[in-house]
Amino acid sequence: MKKAFIVANWKMNPVTFKEAENLFVSVNKGIKKDKGIEVIICPPFVYLNFLKKNQKGEKGKIRLGAQNCSSQEKGALTGEISPVMLKKIGCEYVILGHFERRKYFSETDEGINKKIKLVLKNGLKPILCINEILQIKKDLKGISKKEIGKILVAYEPAWAIGTGKACDYTQAKKFNLLIKKVLGKKHPTLYGGSINAQNALGYIQKSEFSGLLIGGISLKPKEFIKTVELFYNK
Ligand code: PGA
């Protein structure tokens, strides 16, 4: 099997520094380096710098990503986080366009497109989440083929996020093929939505995705590690 990407989206969890540290340390200890997988943890902003430093001798085992960023590099934008800041602290990825951002924070395709461009300009890799195929063209408007090649595109059906009702493999595969029709057969794609250790492997083997975007179980170290282990040099 080719390299698999496993992205952990912690969302707004855990609520204390100590819990975040414990979760990170457990996962870092529990997984093996490389083994044909790239594990990317996306914690809340406030933990990023600390977790980066916490990697110590284990550099490169876990990569860090943010869950969002500003569409501007700097300025009078209260409450925003610049991709320049993220790059400086050693963050490598940024999740953009997650369904929860589109729904609860009214993010538009136009705004997401701006963020993707800025993230790429700053040498970070976007993890673009979509739940409808028409979003791809709008979100990637004006971005060169070469730059698009650096983006991980995640299909997350809105109804499957956090509901325990994962998409069936055939339907997920259909959507995956639609993405590949637009971006090319080799483009890395991820599936996300109610993944657990039991259903995870099928999205790679049956639905032909290159990786997973995991919410709920990324907060449970045992189950998360078990899921990652499924992908060791498959
Ligand atoms: P879930 O979340 O695994 O809890 O369904 C996935 C996501 O929102 O990225």
Can you tell me about this structure?
The structure is a single chain. The protein has 234 residues and is of the alpha/beta class. It has one domain: Alpha-Beta Barrel (TIM Barrel). Helices cover 38% and strands 17% of the residues. It has 10 helices and 8 strands. The protein has an 8-stranded parallel barrel with strand order 1-2-3-4-5-6-7-8. The N and C termini lie close together (5 Å). The mean pLDDT is 95. Bound molecules: 2-phosphoglycolic acid. The site of 2-phosphoglycolic acid (PGA) has 12 residues, from strand 8.
Q: Could you give a short description of this structure?
A:
The chain has 234 residues and is α/β, with parallel strands linked by helices. It is 38% helix and 17% strand.
Please state the overall shape, judged from the principal axes of the Cα atoms: globular
Count of distinct structural domains:
1
CATH topology-level name: TIM Barrel
How do the strands line up in the largest sheet? 1-2-3-4-5-6-7-8
Please tally the β strands and state the result. 8
Bound compounds, each kind once, are: 2-phosphoglycolic acid
Q: What do the pLDDT scores average to? A: 95
